[in-house]
């Protein structure tokens, strides 16, 4: 079959690879009908994510049709249409029992990126996400093996819901949702969202649905900010034009700051030359640019919610400011399985329209170009969907 594979920094290719096979009794084989490129794939694509090997198949946002089922798979049959969460979770461990699916302690034989790990078990295995997360083949391919198929895949029986409408249940829609739930905002709240990429846009959509009153959105791609302003009524701040977005936000909120901030950017945040150089030299684990802005932009007693991915340490991390302001911080990979059913309901009922953010739909064979335009933000790219 054809699949998008990793060959090194800025080098992904469409290769011919062996077809996947069932390996456990609760696996299914899926024929992929739609898959997307995520901001997390960009960290890998840029060579910034450790644990990748030549030939690894990328992709963790995908859906398709069940081709084959293992003998222990209940509730799914050949021909069923499903969306697959990017988190591989057993459904039976300590964490799955608490609906903390991305913390599943049985599916990742790798070690994750945690620095001070001690002897604690790893969090969940993830599709297409390096050998630190289990080395599972991803879904930017014609076929994919889906382990733990009794816990992950969500059936979409309603054929009037297009792939484009439901595909993002696999990752960015639950991620935007968890970011807003963690931010503890609702009707009448104020919220700052750093990053107008797919995750930031999904967070804005959810915040609007939940009645958040004012949403500030920060980025430096004018076309993304303009889309968010038109679609979700956000107030935009371009950090190329305005060096200190947090200052603008404090000014605009009676010198308090917003109730909560969401960091939908992560460890490659732009804007600090020093940190970019230190991170490239591996003297700094992550850029703290957005976290510092979020701390400064959030009012006392507020929340910082971080769906953006981080790894390692940050020197300029103002923990004293967090303490003085009494801020809470919530982070982590999304507990996708937990939110999929309720979000499917919101999409079915027309309360959320995640497909509007798609700017490019390309054949899987053009995936390399898809990575280039999404990475370089060319051609007003917001989100790329690939069709095998
Ligand atoms: P993206 O790269 O398309 O979007 C990131 C946006 O942040 C870009 O538009 C970029 O211009 C902007 N940005 C860069 N520096 C900034 C700064 N200093 N201030 C404000 N904006 C800045 O990616 P995406 O798909 O939206 O993903 C965003 C992050 O979410 C990534 O780190 C990704 O790995 C992570 N993610 C996490 C989960 C999870 O489970 N927690 C799931 C999906 C994605
Ligand atoms: Zn993702
Ligand atoms: Zn588990």
Question: What report would you give on this structure?
Answer:
This protein has 388 residues and is of the alpha/beta class. The chain has two domains: 2-171 and 334-387, Quinone Oxidoreductase, Chain A, domain 1 (Alpha-Beta Complex); 172-331, 3-Layer(aba) Sandwich (Rossmann fold), CATH 3.40.50.720. The protein has helices at 39-45, 94-97, 163-166, 172-183, 198-209, 222-232, 245-252, 273-280, 289-297, 319-325, 336-348, 367-376; strands spanning 2-8, 11-16, 28-36, 61-69, 81-84, 87-88, 125-126, 143-146, 154-155, 190-194, 214-219, 235-238, 258-263, 298-306, 328-331, 360-363, 384-387. The longest helix has 13 residues, at 336-348. The model has no long low-confidence stretch (mean pLDDT 97). The site of nicotinamide-adenine-dinucleotide has 34 residues, from α1, α4, α5, β11 and α9.
Concise structural overview:
With 388 residues, the protein is an alpha/beta fold. Strands 3, 4, 5, 8, 9, 16 and 17 form a 7-stranded mixed sheet that branches. Strands 12-11-10-13-14-15 form a 6-stranded parallel sheet, sandwiched between helices.
Low-confidence stretches: none
Could you please say which CATH topology of the largest domain applies here?
Quinone Oxidoreductase, Chain A, domain 1
CATH architecture of the largest domain: Alpha-Beta Complex
Strand content range: 15-25%
When the domains are counted, the total is 2
Q: What would CATH call the class of the largest domain?
A: Alpha Beta
Distance between the termini: 10 Å
Structural class: alpha/beta
Could you say which small molecules are bound to this protein? nicotinamide-adenine-dinucleotide, zinc ion
DSSP helix count? 12
Overall, the morphology is globular
Spell out the CATH superfamily of the largest domain: Medium-chain alcohol dehydrogenases, catalytic domain
Radius of gyration: 20 Å
Sheet having the most strands:
7 strands, mixed
Average pLDDT metric: 97
Order of helices and strands: EEEHEEEHEEEHHEHEHEHEHHEHEHEHE
Count of extended strands? 17
